[in-house]
Amino acid sequence: MTTPSMDAADIAASLRAAMVRELREMDAVTSEPVAAALATVPRHLFALGEPLEAAYAANSALVVKRDASGLALSSLSAAHIQAVMLEQAEIEPGMRVLEIGSGGYNAALIQELVGAAGMVVSVDIDPDIVERACTCLKAAGYDRVEVVLTDAENGVPEHAPYDRIIVTAGAWDIPPAWVDQLSKVGRIVVPLRVRGRTRTIAFDRSDDVLVSRSYCLSAFVPMQGSGSFSEHIVQLAEGVVLQVDEEPQRFDVEALRQALDSPRLERWSGAAFDLPDELELFLLTNAPQVAMLHASEELVAQGRFAPSVTRGVPALISGGSFAYRTKRPNEETGGFESGVFAHGPEAEAVAAEYVELLRRWASDYRRRGAARIQYIPKTARTSLPSRGLISKRHGAVIVSWP
């Protein structure tokens, strides 16, 4: 609570304490070390030009730099996601930590966690961001953080190995340098793009392979430099696209365009609709040919598509037919029931296949953290399964459902 007689420092301290309380209530903060770091570092000193209330808003990211078209190039991530990532990392005093993507604030939090015996290296490709991070860190009293200007694809080998590597930009792949510079028992926390969605995954090293410890849905400004990647967009009609992150799949685009104008088939699963981000991961990694289907709000308002498509929904594709997930109220399934809308000459078959996936997830995997995610570098001497495999530039992601 703030009062008119409080000065700016007191107001900032009060807002910072309130932010930590809110993050605890949201379960974003679950440990005392992370809570203490968030309560100590003056976040407003890294949010230059922003009101104190904005600096300490738990769920608001603040854009630091935009390109000529207005696209965000760098941002101060929401305190919520920073807290979650730090909890995933489980940083201990004395550790050596490499931060990929510099802004200053997160590096200061890490410095609090590693203490005087630890080391924090923060890297960014943008000279403006590096200069800004250095200025803010110095102003806040964290001049022991080493900020390096370089392409993060190469890491910072001169200070390796690192006990933790924390990536604060959206990555499409995990470069060999990050794995090489990770200690034998180290951990990488990385927002990794998989099939059209980004999930922050905490990977522990197991010999030459990375194995997930936890994961959660997230959103980050994408990586720049050698690690950048452009998604593939297939336009089916005005306001309707398929989004594919990996190598372009071969779609019968003309047949799919014709399917859009065909009658809609509706099928219901009798299974609960719940935890949509977990369900989405299951669908994206268990369907034989799948892409993210996006359609405009205007088309939804016209009744041509279900509301699920406005933010993207996994679409199962078979030749010139496709099916996608929807929901409807149903108290018997706990509130909502999952279902399928399908179009095209094989609508019945593709809908049946999708419904079976919905039922299987609800029966066997309806919980947080059901998936096991591995990253297999190309250099690893490990055989690759045929199921759940997502090819990347430097390796492959394997998503399995034990």
TrEMBL record:
Entry's Gene Ontology BP terms: methylation
Keyword S-adenosyl-L-methionine: yes
Record localization: Cytoplasm
Keywords: Cytoplasm, Methyltransferase, S-adenosyl-L-methionine, Transferase
Documented EC number(s): 2.1.1.77
GO MF term list: methyltransferase activity
Pfam families, per the entry: PCMT
InterPro entries: Methyltran_FxLD (IPR027573), PCMT (IPR000682), SAM-dependent_MTases_sf (IPR029063)
Classification via CDD domains: AdoMet_MTases (cd02440)
Stated family: Belongs to the methyltransferase superfamily. L-isoaspartyl/D-aspartyl protein methyltransferase family.
PANTHER family found in the cross-reference section: PROTEIN-L-ISOASPARTATE O-METHYLTRANSFERASE, PROTEIN-L-ISOASPARTATE(D-ASPARTATE) O-METHYLTRANSFERASE
Name the record gives this protein: Protein-L-isoaspartate O-methyltransferase
Source organism of the structure: Microbispora hainanensis
Organism lineage string: Bacteria, Bacillati, Actinomycetota, Actinomycetes, Streptosporangiales
